[in-house]
Amino acid sequence: MDIQLGRGKTARRAYGIDEIALVPGPRTLDPSLADTRWTIGGIERDIPIIASAMDGVVDVKTAADLAKLGALGVLNLEGIQTRYDDPEPILDRIVSVGKSEFVTLMQELYAEPVKESLIVKRIQEMKDLGGIAAVSVTPVAAARYQETLSEAGADLVFIQATVVSTAHLSPNSVTPLDLAKFCEEMPMPVILGNCVTYDVALNLMKAGAAAVLVGIGPGAACTSRGVLGVGVPQATAVSDCAAARDDFYRETGNYIPVIADGGLVTGGDICKCIASGGDAVMIGSPFARAAGAPGRGFHWGMATPSPVLPRGTRIQVGTTGTLEEILLGPAKLDDGTHNLVGALKTSMGTLGAKDLREMQQVDVVIAPSLLTEGKVYQKAQQIGMGK
């Protein structure tokens, strides 16, 4: 239902993940029976969780480790890993500088050009370690490095920007990337994003996307919503884009996964995104907390180094456990940030969902008090859900 914002403008109510709750049905099942498998670009994964293509989250080793655990990690091909042959001292500088000098330092470090030889090298390193070579580029870089990406043999290519559309207008001197042509020409599946609406999601699917990323600005280190005032809360955005997926499937018989990207910290967040219609999630800050993460306990947004309009910041997330503990447990924390897969399977068992498609069909209620009801002691003592 539209709400009257003023005499000349109506607004639609949108909902965030924190505002909804999942409703148990008449059936339950043992969590061991919950099937969390999904497929992206013809590659089957046991776990519907992707690590974000952020420099503080994924490097070559992390991507390989995630693949071996059944998940997926995406490497940023416009980050530190492809600008510097040895990124370690650069990462040390990023995490050691003070708050007031951070943005200036990032702009300086990311002014170093991306080297095509390092794109090829990183993709090969991921494969040599037994990983899945999933990589991310912006539309501008996709056009610039298309031949290199084709020849380097990446398994999956993610084209990501704050907003991606098939109707981009550019100055006469600039030729915009033709997404449909790019998807058709590339020898590997191409994932497109980000978007938050039914129409754009449907257009990206028609352009040949192997999957669609959903989310504008909800990430822990992203400031796009504050800087640009743009975004749609994730529960509504995922639901709208999932409707596009279902309509596209009915029309074509081609099922295009919808991936909720950003704003997810706990197992409960992941469960609610899938119940809103998502096939998988992409998360950053939970993995930035892993021992051995390239960010060394820090996490920063992809648009932070922008030379003209930074739309991200650096946050300190600390180090709370191993990658395996965060993903598969056993949990050492009581706040839902460890054993994300265990949380998903237990939620599916509680809701009676045997697989992700059934999880997408569970009942949802609007519940703004879900995370605060009865939690006065946890909040006062800063434990559990009160942290």
Features:
387 residues, alpha/beta, TIM Barrel, two-stranded antiparallel sheet, 17 helices, globular
CATH fold group: TIM Barrel
- CATH architecture descriptor: Alpha-Beta Barrel
Helix content: 25-40%
Which homologous superfamily in CATH is the superfamily? Aldolase class I
Provide the number of structural domains.
Answer: 1
Rg over C-alpha atoms, rounded to the nearest angstrom: 20 Å
Low-confidence stretches: none
Structural class: alpha/beta
Description:
The chain is 36% helix and 17% strand. With 387 residues, the protein is an alpha/beta fold. The protein has a single domain, classed as TIM Barrel (Alpha-Beta Barrel). The strands form five sheets. Strands 6-7-8-9-10-11-12-13 form an eight-stranded parallel β-barrel, surrounded by four helices. It has a two-stranded antiparallel ribbon with strand order 1-2. Strands 3-16 form a two-stranded antiparallel ribbon. Helix 1 packs parallel to helix 5. The longest helix has 19 residues. The two termini are 35 Å apart. The mean pLDDT is 92.
Write a brief structural summary.
The chain is α/β, with parallel strands linked by helices and 387 residues long. It is built from 17 helices and 16 strands. Helix content is 36%, strand content 17%.
Map the helices and strands:
Elements: E1 2-6, E2 9-12, E3 20-23, E4 38-40, E5 43-45, E6 49-51, H1 60-69, E7 72-76, H2 80-83, H3 88-96, H4 99-109, H5 116-128, E8 134-137, H6 139-144, H7 146-152, E9 156-160, H8 179-185, E10 190-195, H9 198-206, E11 211-214, H10 224-228, H11 234-252, E12 258-261, H12 267-275, E13 280-283, H13 285-288, E14 298-300, E15 314-316, H14 323-328, H15 340-351, H16 356-359, E16 363-366, H17 376-381
Parallel strand pairs: 6-7, 6-13, 7-8, 8-9, 9-10, 10-11, 11-12, 12-13
Antiparallel strand pairs: 1-2, 3-16, 4-5, 14-15
